[in-house]
Amino acid sequence: MQKLNPEIKDRIENELLVTVGRRYRQETLWVILLGLICVGGTVAWIIQLRKGLGVTAMRDYVSWGLYISLLFFFVGVSLIGALVSCVLRMSGAKWRYPLIRIAEAVTLSAIFFAGFMPVLDMGRPERLYFLITHGRIQSPILWDVVAIATYFIGSLIYFYLPLIPDVAIMRDRITDAPKWRKKAWTWLAMGWEDNLLQRRLLKKAMLILCIVILPVAISVHTISAWLIAFTLRPGWNSTIMGPYFVFGALMAGTAIMILIIAKLRHGYRLEHYLTNKHFNNLAKILLALTSFYLYLNINKYGVPAFKMAKEEKAVLQDLFYGHNSFFFWFTQIVGLVIPIILLSFQKIRHSIKWVVASAVMVLLGALINRYLIVVPNMLHPFAPIQHAQPGYATYHPTLIEWTITASSLAGFVLLIILLFKPFPVITMWEVTEEIEKRGEKEIGVEDILNPQTITGHAI
Amino acid sequence: MSCGNNCSCGGNDSRRDFLKSSVATITTGILGGSLLNSFTSCNEKKEDEKVNVLTHDGKLVAIDKSQVANFKPHISEEDVRKGIPGKKFVMVIDLAKCDGCGKCTKACNKMHYLPSNKEWIEVLEMQDSPEMAPYYFPKPCMHCDNPPCTKVCPVDATFKREDGIVAIDNERCIGCRFCMAACPYSVRLFNWTEPVKPNIVETTPPPEHVFQSKKGCVEKCDFCPHMAREGKLPACVTGCPMNAIWFGDANEDAVTCYDGTTTKLSQLLEDGAAYRFLDELGTEPRVYYLPPTNRTYNAKEIKIETNDSEK
Fold first, then answer.
1. Which strand (E) or helix (H) includes residue A363?
2. Could you say which DSSP state residue B197 is in?
């Protein structure tokens, strides 16, 4: 492949830098809306801190509720960074280049909130530092703390490393920026001159990190699964929990990734960079993951259902035709079976609309599934629930809980948007370099080499 | 036990000195601290009463009760984490005798200043299958020897002591409720709101407090270690008029019930064909149950509450 025309390179950089710091009307509205939800959540949290966890619907039987379900969800979503930047890298998928920064931003935001959820759930959050001063390393909670912290720092570095050359480009190109911004860029670029040695070192660092971060990512979610698998409760006492969580997480992460690139594609006018190829390939991954997850579900629920052991029976009956049966069958049919059927057709995989629709279904199913893993099992302990006070043998989350839950999800999206604001969404230097090396088709970008088609919107 | 298998020295007093008498003869040889401890429990008695004291050269001497100072040993943070030396507490619940009156719960709530909606010892109505007769099932903390709860605690707030008790330090508990999820017996309770504090001052470290409730912390049955230190029985045992609950020390192989009967633990377990609740989970509970054979009450009157209507 010949060297890229400097004019084209210039246009690519110009086009991608347009989104930096620019205000979009729709986006601003979203930021305000999400921000308001977060303010509501903060108020709810303050009420909860003052009055204690009594304001939630959690009681002695259902002692974990929405917050822990959401912890599992966020930890799960955070695996998408490892999937895109490690698994796809090792499998040699070149189309991952435009997705890397988006995936890492989702990961960073998700793991941040994953670390936050247990604090929301604590009875005495002011004693959080006891984990360090009195920590027992034998406890899986300590493992979780260590794993989440390691993964957060690793993801932060993985977000930062490919950013260095891009910040250097910004430092050199954007001349009309305020002084403090330029200072920040100079500082972040760490004297990047784009020479061969620097490129080699950077790539080496990224390779090492890519190898290190995969086991860390898997450990984060496996340990979260162990929090419940290490108990003796019927339904939780199962060896399948680790892989069940990890693959459910990859599935949910891929679905979120599809939704986010669909939004960015139109919102930021990145149609040339996030193309059908990406949606098609992500749809294939989603198909593989949903199928495998269905298989895991059959194992997780089918095997005990055949035996119908005394203790498991109550939980399974609750899920199959009891009070939670609607949710259970929703996650299985709408969350798995229908997307699998839809995504099996090539035509549907090639239509962005249908891929997005499938991703929405998968995501809804994954969210509800987290709730189903946590709550119904707690309502069927070994010792029968008797003489329970009103509200103790049920779980209907209160307004405070819903508000905090909604604001955590809103905060998760908001943090992603805010991470996209100061930096280009797409890794400019890597994309241009790979276009030079392999051509635009393999990377999945379209119509960039032809200067005529670049409309250069609002440069 | 010094007084044999079926000592019934009569009256309520014997309940109080079931540990005392044994302490004076066996354990005191090794532990001077417990010796003095045992005296504090009998100072309500008449002045001219004699008590046995072990001299440093190993002789048992009877001296006047009045000559012994009323001494309460200081209990340090380390003591409450280690437990009462030389003891291995054990409970036996005779399901044939329990008629479900719930007086154990009431006595427990009274001792620990618990509100009526909290039950550290809960009386369940059990029926293993529709064809089988129902029975009442008092469920305290099992104080497992392989406790699933202490294994998962991230800050060592709940721990297993050398005397067999699983205790909670609510000045340490962060309220993550992992122990509640881990406990297969559902005995752990959480303080969702601020509990009403009684007007008492406690000088012992928190794990042996009588009143353990604290907002945002976990609590449960603690086998009344503050009573055991004084050589007394837990509230549920002294509150059970059916003599259904036995409490004692496995090292001494002796357990005592409400009316003061002290019997050999191993004999009781063997004769009664004792079992442990959910023993198959491998938690090694320290609470034994004697099966509900030859019930002393009319079992057919028990109504089993199912929680299907609740949901």
1. helix A352-378
2. P
Q: Using CB atoms, pick whichever of A141, A322, A383 lies closest to residue B178.
A: A141
| Contact list, B139 vs chain A (CB under 8 Å) | 383
Is residue A398 predicted with pLDDT exceeding 90?
yes
DSSP A177: S
- Is residue A389 included in any domain, yes or no? no
What three-state secondary structure class fits B194?
A: coil
B279 close contact with A: CB closer than 8 A: no
- Give the model confidence (pLDDT) of A191-237 as tens digits: 888 888 888 999 899 889 888 999 999 999 999 999 999 999 988 99
Which fold does the domain B77-301 belong to in CATH?
Answer: Alpha-Beta Plaits (3.30.70)
Q: Report d(CA A405, CA A271) in Å as an integer.
A: 33
Establish if A72 belongs to a structural domain.
yes
pLDDT of residue A448: 67
Q: Which has more pLDDT, B105 or A172? A: B105
Helix/strand/coil (H/E/C) assignment for every residue in A185-250: HHHHHCCCCCCHHHHHHHHHHHHHHHHHHHHHHHHHHHHHHHHHHCCCCCCCCCCCHHHHHHHHHH
Residue-level pLDDT at A3: 62
**Cα–Cα distance for residue pair A435/A448, rounded to 1 Å:** 9
* Chain A closest-CA separation from residue B309 CA (Å): 10
Mean pLDDT by 10 residues, chain B (311 residues): 41 47 43 43 56 81 76 82 92 92 93 90 88 90 95 94 93 93 94 89 88 91 91 93 93 92 93 93 94 79 60 37
Output the domain CATH number for residue A285: 1.20.1630.10
- pLDDT at residue number B47: 54
Q: Collect all residues of chain A within an 8 Å Cβ-Cβ radius of residue B182.
A: 230-232
Residue among B223, B257, B264, B256 nearest B243 (CA): B257
Q: What is the pLDDT of residue A449?
A: 63
pLDDT (0 to 100) of residue B117: 86
Q: Quote the domain boundaries for residue A428.
A: 6-381+395-443
Pairing label, strands B89-94, B287-290? parallel
Query: Is A116 inside a domain boundary?
Result: yes
pLDDT at A16 over 90: no
Question: Which pair of structure tokens corresponds to residue A283?
Answer: 């749809």
Nearest beta carbon to residue B216 from set A123, A134, A138? A123
Domain residue limits, chain B: 13-67, 77-301
Q: How far apart are CA A312 and CA A302, in angstroms?
A: 12
User: Cα–Cα distance between A76 and A245 in angstroms, integer?
Assistant: 7
Segment A238-280, tens digit of pLDDT: 899 999 999 999 999 999 999 999 988 888 888 888 888 889 9
d(CA A252, CA A275): 21
Q: pLDDT tens-digit profile of A300-319?
A: 999 999 998 888 888 999 89
Q: In the numeric block, which tokens belong to residue B10?
A: 């009569």
Distances in Å between the Cα of B50 and the Cα atoms of A230, B64, B67 are 55, 5, 10
Beta-carbon contacts below 8 Å between A and B: 149
Q: Give contacts of A122 with chain B, Cβ < 8 Å.
A: 174-176, 216
In a domain, A453, yes or no: no
Q: What residue in A sits closest to B278 (Cα-Cα)?
A: A382
Instruction: Report the candidate in A199, A97, A15, A92 with the shortest Cα–Cα distance to residue A434.
Output: A97
Interface check for B171 against chain A (CB to CB < 8 A): the answer is no
What per-residue confidence (pLDDT) applies to B29? 40
pLDDT (tens digit per residue) in A121-139: 999 999 999 999 999 999 9
C-alpha span between A8 and B256 (Å, rounded)? 92
In chain B the first and final C-alpha atoms are separated, in Å, by: 51
Q: How far is CA A357 from CA A253, A256, A352, A371, in A?
A: 15, 12, 9, 22
Q: Is the Cβ pair B182, A122 closer than 8 Å?
A: no
